[in-house]
């Protein structure tokens, strides 16, 4: 056995370099690696159940290297990340995103709320690219991360999204993202080309047709051009402020104020509506499994 540890053949069983404690109290095998942690530290009902299984024909499992408790459906990388958590005084931050995802998934499988909560709060406090954030949100089913990350992505030019970002967000999200961006661009062109009606004539306005014609020309020149600016287009949320800062030459003050009041009342929110619609289409893919819906987990 000693010799096998030093120069393991491909299929030989080896002791994990950090988590095979000589004084450990249970031997666990994952793949071809043996771990010997302390039973007490694996504080989960699932483990308690595993440890209290009646011995099979070949004797009790987990007492030695010959008959370890074998964990299926777990990789050595995942189990190591999990042990890093349970023995965490020895593995201080920073943690990698992948390790925290592994921890969350094993915590979920073994009903360890503290592992899940720890992974989630660590991931929550990290600054991630919105594409990566969406990927993590979908893997962990944290719906609360969806809308802010989607909103960030919508404002990014598509040329800044790499193939890797595309893989991270997945095909459904990418499809809905590009449609939302397309819809917002259409609204932008519409808003630029179609000045709002200057239909409230002030009682003191003597030539309202001239008023309207100047308003239309100035809208396209000052507001429309800003909305369509190739490098720094005016955001929808800034349109009202911009309208108020424009000098509306030869538009009667009372008529202009009436039109701006109407704009304020209606709001410039078409982009928000499009984003909210997109987010509600995506929600099912990000909701927790408890909702009963199981979207794809690519
Ligand atoms: Zn007028």
TrEMBL record:
InterPro entries: SKP1/BTB/POZ_sf. This is Uncharacterized protein.
């Amino acid at each position: 056995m000693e010799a096998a540890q030093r120069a393991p053949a491909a299929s030989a069983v080896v002791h994990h370099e950090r988590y095979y404690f000589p004084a450990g109290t249970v031997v666990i095998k994952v793949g071809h690696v043996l771990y010997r942690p302390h039973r007490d530290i694996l504080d989960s009902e699932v483990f308690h159940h595993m440890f209290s299984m009646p011995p099979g024909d070949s004797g009790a499992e987990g007492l030695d290297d010959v008959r370890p408790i074998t964990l299926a459906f777990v990789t050595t990388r995942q189990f190591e990340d999990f042990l890093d958590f349970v023995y965490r005084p020895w593995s201080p931050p920073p943690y990698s995103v992948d390790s925290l995802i592994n921890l969350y998934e094993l915590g979920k499988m073994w009903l360890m709320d503290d592992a899940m909560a720890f992974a989630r709060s660590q991931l929550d406090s990290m600054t991630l690219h919105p594409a990566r954030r969406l990927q993590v949100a979908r893997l962990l089913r944290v719906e609360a991360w969806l809308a802010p990350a989607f909103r960030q992505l919508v404002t990014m030019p598509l040329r800044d999204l790499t193939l890797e970002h595309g893989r991270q967000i997945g095909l459904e999200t990418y499809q809905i993202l590009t449609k939302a961006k397309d819809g917002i661009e259409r609204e932008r062109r519409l808003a630029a080309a179609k000045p709002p009606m200057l239909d409230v004539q002030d009682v003191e306005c003597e030539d309202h047709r001239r008023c309207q014609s100047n308003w239309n020309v100035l809208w396209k020149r000052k507001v429309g051009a800003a909305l369509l600016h190739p490098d720094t287009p005016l955001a929808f949320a800034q349109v009202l402020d911009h309208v108020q800062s424009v000098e509306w030459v030869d538009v009667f003050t009372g008529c202009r104020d009436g039109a701006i009041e109407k704009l304020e009342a209606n709001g410039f929110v078409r982009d928000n509506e499009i984003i909210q619609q997109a987010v509600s289409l995506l929600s099912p893919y990000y909701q927790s499994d408890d909702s009963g819906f199981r979207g794809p987990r690519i």
